[in-house]
Design a protein that fits this description.
By secondary structure, this protein is mainly α. It is built from five helices and no strands. Helix 1 crosses helix 3 and helix 3 packs antiparallel against helix 4. The longest helix is centred in the middle third of the chain and has 82 residues. The protein is rod-shaped. The termini are far apart. The relative contact order is 0.08. InterPro entries: PspA_VIPP1. Belongs to the PspA/Vipp/IM30 family. This is PspA/IM30 family protein. It comes from Arthrobacter gallicola. Keywords: Coiled coil.
């Protein structure tokens, strides 16, 4: 039962579809980490159980080989006793001949018992050998799955880190995007534009004030010239009248 349970667990884990499990997971990375731990623990546990199963098989094989060796030894002893009995019988010693024949029979009985033990162990050994091979195959599949899990986990972690780095980069670019009116730079630029507009307004106001002053100066200069010309005209007329009066008196 224990061996079958171990084998069933190995077969189940070896057949696990990693991609399907990941699709069902809320956090694939955490699930992969847990699966790697579970697989590693199960592999270690299964390796210990398989090692024990192999050890048990080797003990059965040792007992089987020992039974075969015992059968051969008892067969040799039976043969030796039978030959000794034949020698005594050829020499006319029937008592010793009978004695060694009896020994040969005992040896044959023990040979048969050893052979029976060996034959009885053969099905069990064959079954255990099959189980061991299946367990070894299952362990190999588990180790392959573990490598897949580790590769998948490493790939996923790398992709997650890359995605996080790209998000950070996008956030950084967005924060300094001068075309984004909601960014700090956009608000600062808007403030500068307002200050520049204020300066232009002040300059225009100052310019209009200077133009008015210059216009008033020009008006004042024109008026002064008019007054001067009027005074000159009057002076010229006065001089002409004086000259005319002087001519008439002469």
């Amino acid at each position: 039962m224990v061996k079958q349970s171990i084998f069933g667990r190995i077969a189940t884990l070896a057949k696990a579809n990693i991609n399907a499990l990941l699709d069902q997971a809320e956090d694939p990375q955490k699930m992969l980490d847990q699966m790697v731990r579970d697989y590693s623990n199960n592999i270690a546990e299964a390796e210990s159980a398989v090692a024990q199963t192999i050890g048990n098989l080797r003990m059965l094989q040792d007992d089987y080989n020992e039974d075969l060796e015992n059968a051969r030894n008892w067969g040799n002893k039976a043969l030796a006793a039978s030959r000794k009995a034949d020698e005594f019988r050829a020499g006319g010693n029937t008592v010793d001949a009978e004695k060694f024949d009896n020994l040969a029979k005992v040896a044959i009985q023990r040979q048969m018992a050893a052979e029976s033990e060996a034959r009885g162990a053969e099905p069990t050994i064959a079954s255990q050998e099959e189980i061991v091979e299946r367990l070894k195959t299952g362990l190999t599949q588990m180790k392959d799955k573990l490598q897949q899990l580790q590769s998948k986990r490493n790939e996923l972690i790398a992709r997650a880190r890359n995605a996080a780095a790209q998000n950070q980069m996008h956030d950084a670019i967005k924060s300094i995007d001068v075309m984004d009116p909601t960014s700090e730079v956009g608000r600062f630029e808007e403030k500068i534009r307002r200050e520049e507009a204020k300066v232009r307004g002040a300059n225009e106001l100052a310019a209009s004030s200077l133009d008015a002053q210059f216009e008033s100066l020009e008006d004042l200069g024109e008026q002064t010239e008019v007054e001067a010309r009027l005074a000159a005209l009057k002076a010229s007329a006065s001089n002409q009248a004086a000259n005319q009066s002087a001519i008439e008196q002469n």
